[in-house]
């Protein structure tokens, strides 16, 4: 079902979720560290914590732990605990998380097609204000 982009002003509301129906999705999927975690799990498959930590530069262990817990809670990541010595924990993208693949692909395509234009616009904007 397509999202109605041109709602009449009378339908405008103060509730951001009603004003913009994609806001809840953006909050879930596109926070600072969530996108790189999901991208990594989608691209490289099941990984241990330390593998994710190495792939995602500048993320702290605390933040990675928090994000993984939230993604598990949201149903986008599956955590598997292996009771061995030493214990082993692996993370993988869930079936629900895999449904985001077309969205990520479209965003990657948009970036490839348009990021250069964005950079040009930024330079023009900055130059005009210098």
Number of helices: 7
Main beta sheet: 3 strands, antiparallel
Regarding quaternary structure, what we see is single chain
Q: How does the helix and strand content classify structurally?
A: mainly alpha
> Tally of extended strands?
3
The ordered string of helix (H) and strand (E) elements is HHHEHHEEHH
Mean pLDDT, as a whole number?
Answer: 89
Strand arrangement across the biggest beta sheet: 1-3-2
| Gyration radius over CA | 19 Å
- N-to-C CA distance: 45 Å
User: Approximately what portion of the residues adopt beta-strand conformation?
Assistant: 5-15%
**What best-fitting shape do the alpha-carbon axes yield?**
globular
Helix proportion: 55-70%
Q: Runs with pLDDT <50, length 5+?
A: none
What does this entry look like structurally?
The chain is mainly α. It contains 7 helices and 3 strands. It has a 3-stranded antiparallel β-sheet.
In summary, what is this structure?
With 130 residues, the protein is mostly helical. It has seven helices and three strands, in the order H-H-H-E-H-H-E-E-H-H. 58% of the residues lie in helices and 11% in strands.
């Amino acid at each position: 079902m397509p999202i109605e982009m041109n709602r009449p002003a009378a339908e405008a509301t103060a509730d951001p979720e009603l004003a913009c129906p994609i806001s809840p999705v953006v909050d879930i999927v596109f926070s600072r560290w969530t996108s790189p975690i999901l991208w990594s799990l989608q691209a490289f498959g099941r990984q241990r914590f330390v593998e994710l930590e190495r792939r995602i530069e500048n993320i702290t262990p605390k933040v990675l732990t928090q994000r993984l817990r939230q993604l598990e809670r949201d149903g986008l990541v599956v955590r598997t605990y292996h009771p061995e010595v030493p214990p082993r924990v692996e993370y993988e993208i869930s079936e629900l998380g895999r449904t985001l693949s077309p969205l990520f692909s479209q965003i990657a395509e948009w970036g490839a097609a348009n990021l250069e234009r964005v950079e040009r616009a930024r330079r023009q904007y900055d130059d005009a204000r210098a």
